[in-house]
Amino acid sequence: MSQALTSDFQKRLIEAIKEFGGCAYPGELAVRLKVDAGSVALVLRQLAAQGLVYRLEESVLDFTKPLLTSKWCIAEQQKAQVSSEVIGEVVDLIVNPKLYRDLGSYVQRMGFSGSFDALKGYVCSSEIALKVMMPYIGDLLGVMLSECVERLSRVEVKVITEVNSASSVEPIRGLLPNIKVIYATQYNQAGSKSVKVRGVHAKLILVDRRIAVVGTFNLTKYHLYTNYDIGVVLRGAVVGYLDELFEAVWNFLATGT
Questions:
Q1: What pLDDT, on a 0 to 100 scale, did the predictor assign at position 81?
Q2: How far apart are CA 206 and CA 156, in angstroms?
Q3: Does 123 share its domain with 67?
Q4: Does 99 map to a domain?
Q5: Is residue 169 part of a domain?
Q6: Alpha-carbon gap, residue 131 to 181, rounded angstroms
Q7: Total-model pTM
Q8: CB of 40 within 8 A of CB of 26?
Q9: Where does a domain end: 43, 74, 105?
């Protein structure tokens, strides 16, 4: 709905929250403004990015739908004007070898980077910390790390992955003793069956809090030979946010809190 994206609607939404005493659920606001709750949630996110409202986390009713089932409140310090906030920029787009083989002339004309060379370059540029969050890791990670093992031996290296990747990840300790690994996988027993209740699906590589690579790829042979995969390279404040998120996940998995 285009109306939901206008500054006029944003102002009406803020006024509606004030009418509810400063905090309200998206459903309540949707009824008041006669629009759907999804559009309200979208605009609330825009306003939150501008510092005009915030989500009251302890008010959430359904943790599978936090944006729709939490109260949103007027921020204490409102900005005089609504303005967009840029938290980062995309500085590169990378494609995997399979895409290069099948669409070679197109991807070369567009100037897209090849993922293996690009990832190796970013990984080997690390001077402080290299962090990887990825469900499936094969020999590809070890190959990349071996290209600059002397440099990375002086760097903090952390990996969050699935337990199925252990056979490929654990041998890396012989190459890089300083690597730290946490396996996110957790199963619960349900009768005679083991049911997976936790795992990692994110594909994220962080380099020194200055570069983040986010993509569709796992570091496996399928990334090289079979699948079509793409990724984006990010700089700016968003990298710091992703680094903080990585550390929060790491600490939770390590301590359970």
A1: 39
A2: 11
A3: no
A4: yes
A5: yes
A6: 10
A7: 0.68
A8: yes
A9: 74
What residues make up the domain containing 34? 2-74
SS3 per-residue string spanning the chain: CHHHHCHHHHHHHHHHHHHCCCEECHHHHHHHHCCCHHHHHHHHHHHHHCCCEEEEHHHCCCCCCCCCCCEEEECCCCCCCCCCCCCCEEEEEEECHHHHHHCHHHHHHHCCEEHHHHHHHHHHCCCCEEEEECCCECHHHHHHHHCCHHHHCCCEEEEEECHHHHHHHCCHHHHCCCEEEEECCEEEEECCEEEEEECCCCCEEEECCCEEEEECCCECHHHHHCCCCEEEEEECHHHHHHHHHHHHHHHHHHHCC
Q: What letters, b where the CB count within 10 A reaches 16 and e where it falls short, cover 81-110?
A: eeeeeeeeeeebbbbbbbbbeeeeeebeee
CATH number, position 50 = 1.10.10.10
Distance in angstroms (rounded) separating the CA atoms of residues 222 and 240 = 30
Separation between Cα atoms, residue 186 and residue 201, nearest integer Å: 13
Whether residues 114 and 17 share a domain: the answer is no
What is the per-residue pLDDT across 9-48, written as a single tens digit (0 to 9) for each? 889 999 999 998 899 999 999 999 999 888 898 899 888 8
Q: What are phi and psi of 124, to 5 degrees?
A: -80, -5
Residues 24 and 93 in one domain: no
Question: How far lies 159's CA from each of 93, 204, 237, 238, in Å?
Answer: 23, 10, 22, 20
